[in-house]
Amino acid sequence: MLVARSLPLVPKPIVRRVAWRYIAGTTLDDAVGIVHHLARRGATATIDALGEFVENAKQAEQETQQAIATLDAIAANNLPAYLSVKLTSIGLSLDHRLAEQNLRYILDRARLLGLFVRLDMENSPYTTPTLELYRTMRESGYDNIGVVIQAYLYRSEHDVRQLAPYQADIRLCKGIYNEDPSLAIKDREGIRANYRALLRLIVELGMSVRIATHDDVLIADAEQLIAERQLERDRYEFQMLLGVREQKRDELIRCGYPVRIYVPYGEDWYGYSLRRLKENPQVAGHVFRALFRYDGFSRR
């Protein structure tokens, strides 16, 4: 959609005005407050300190320390939450060994605090390195770590099968990055079909699955599967983004399903916000309507 593709041309204050519902805020205290609010509504959380755009080892170290601070805050505030981390934020785009070193540091702290860490999945250049680091960590004795599989990638069935020996804890999502058609399914029904197939494969292989979607068709399908297989609550949960389909979130909670909300925070909110807005063309349209109400750009 032309509107969505044009979002990078929109001034940041406009993007922030519309996208802020998807972000806890710029500080860790903001995220803690949001998680407390979600807990009162019956939801757990996963917290992500946004920081994808590191250019050197010093920045990767800073982002690693922010992840450690997030873990400490989760423990200190007794939050029903764990940490999500993007490996590029701790150096994967710079040096695989640097990212491994920083990840071990994070996992050691999480293990000391009795906490879990989810490796977020990024765009396709990082799929194999992320899965390799996951396997390395598991083979090193870390069991407080999970991973993400993206249903729109053709490779995902193979990746799920490769994770079976580790009895991985998998977040299954559709995928949001703009990948080449040779790598990713592009039509909605094709992605849905692969999502359903992967969900069943993960369950059949005995792994835990975190059903990350806002799609009513896929949610209903997952509910049917949960009932048919009589899955225990520790084998699954629904996951949603902060600020997205809150009525559906509350409905799932009322039905007794475990629900976890992805809570991002930090100064590097802009790239994340653009992806969320591009994913939702209707919201992207709100951004452009807001553009013409913005004083700095109004036509008088």
Give a quick precis of the structure.
With about 300 residues, the protein is of the alpha/beta class.
Using brief descriptors, characterize the structure shown:
300 residues; 2 domains; 12 helices; single chain; 8-stranded parallel β-barrel; alpha/beta; TIM Barrel
Describe the structure in your own words.
The protein is built from 12 helices and 8 strands. It has 300 residues and is α/β, with parallel strands linked by helices. It folds into 2 domains: 1-23 and 269-291, no CATH class; 43-268, TIM Barrel, CATH 3.20.20.220. β7, α10 (246-254) and β8 form a beta-alpha-beta unit. α2 packs across α11 (270-279) and α2 crosses α12. Mean pLDDT is 89; it is low at 282-300.
For the largest sheet, list the strands in their spatial order: 1-2-3-4-5-6-7-8
pLDDT < 50 stretches: 282-300
CATH 2nd-level architecture of the largest domain: Alpha-Beta Barrel
Helix coverage percent: 40-55%
Helix and strand content put the structural class at alpha/beta
Ordered list of secondary-structure elements with their pairings:
Elements: H1 2-5, H2 12-19, H3 28-40, E1 44-49, H4 57-76, E2 81-85, H5 96-113, E3 117-119, H6 127-139, E4 145-150, H7 156-163, E5 169-173, H8 188-204, E6 208-212, H9 216-229, E7 236-241, H10 246-254, E8 259-265, H11 270-279, H12 281-291
Parallel strand pairs: 1-2, 1-8, 2-3, 3-4, 4-5, 5-6, 6-7, 7-8
Helix pairs in contact: 2-11, 2-12, 4-5, 8-9
